[in-house]
Amino acid sequence: MKAPSKKVAIVGAGISGLSSAYFLSKFGCQVEVFERRPTSGGLISTIETPKGLVETAANAFVDTELLQEISRDIGVRLHSALRESKRRYIYVDKKAQRWPLSLWETLKMIFILPLVKNKKPLAGETLSEWAIRALGAAVSLKLIAPAIQGIYAGSSERLSASLVLSRLFDKSRKKSAVKRQSVAPKKGMGEWIKGMEAFLKKSGVVLHFGQAMDSENLLRLQKDFDVVLIASSASCAASLLNKQFPCESRALLNVSEMLPLTSVTTFCETDPKQIHGFGVLFAREEGITPLGVLFNSDIFENRSSLRSETWIFSGVNHSKDSLESWIKESQRALYGKELVFRDLRVQTWPQALPYYSVELEKYLRESSFQSKFKQKKVYLVGNYLGRIGLSDLLEKSREVAKEIV
Predict the structure, then answer these.
(1) CA dist., res. 394 & res. 335, Å (int)
(2) Across the 405 residues of the chain, what is the mean pLDDT of every consecutive 10-residue run?
(3) What are the chain's domains?
């Protein structure tokens, strides 16, 4: 006799919640998703403007076999980034450079690079400490720090080397046959979210929007469902679990610092002095206010007939005038002139990314909080648990779904 399918409630309809619902429904579970916002996708959506597409958060996936499989299933075609986007720059020594190291620094790095695989990050070691130990001070300052700052939005002096570099030193991970390049739907990341939502509804997954959750709601879900999967931010998870697990929740909240970010997408006329490629990351020592800039119209086709750029800033309490002034100042540094804005769109996220700090690393390494939650049939998935990239979150969602069933 076939066992009855598990009933699973998922709290949160961001990328982790949607992908978890996808896998659980594939594995035969009855799934309901509860989201406090009126739409799914979390930070990710695409705004269509008269001047072009505006991504509110991530502009692409890193291509993997799993991503391709899911995208075919939900009927969303992924397009590879333009060849021009392979050019990536770091702003060091007052200029944008594709390779910021000197000849001597490069030769030195080539010599020690084969030894890096034996220099696994130590427990509690910051990214800056590891980079200096493994690659030298110049590589740490000119290459590692600005590159990682552009991805994780944090300082290499506080970021955990173990968390940030886990993929590179995980020998158990299988190598993907798909080249790890940037891919996205033709109409932006929002198209993928809409495709996933439509697929889930056809598959029988029930999505509830405008459903704010608290600890009392969680208790009710635990009574009505076999399993509850919390696919939210760390602070939200801690708040939901505080009544049942006050010590663990308080500790999780204490180490789960969230980074506020502002993105500004600008549309300008093209100019011969513009740099072309994926974008530019700014070394902190250069005194440039933005963390980096993406050249959207160079990355994917059909994003805009104008020059589309997205500038990333730390923090959210910036006036529009200040943002415009900082962008113009940065354009003068990059191009030698200011560009005339045809349109400008600002997106703010008070809690955009988890800070992958050494404090969070220690908590994840030493704490038994997840095993205690699972005793109450509560599971967690999210970008604060050791993986931050979208494709990595898809893999983590699949792992957790397999564990649940």
Answers:
(1) 38
(2) 79 97 97 96 95 95 95 97 94 93 92 90 94 93 87 88 84 58 96 98 97 93 96 92 90 87 95 93 91 96 95 95 96 94 95 90 83 90 86 94 95
(3) 7-45+186-257+356-404 (3.50.50.60), 102-169 (1.10.3110.10)
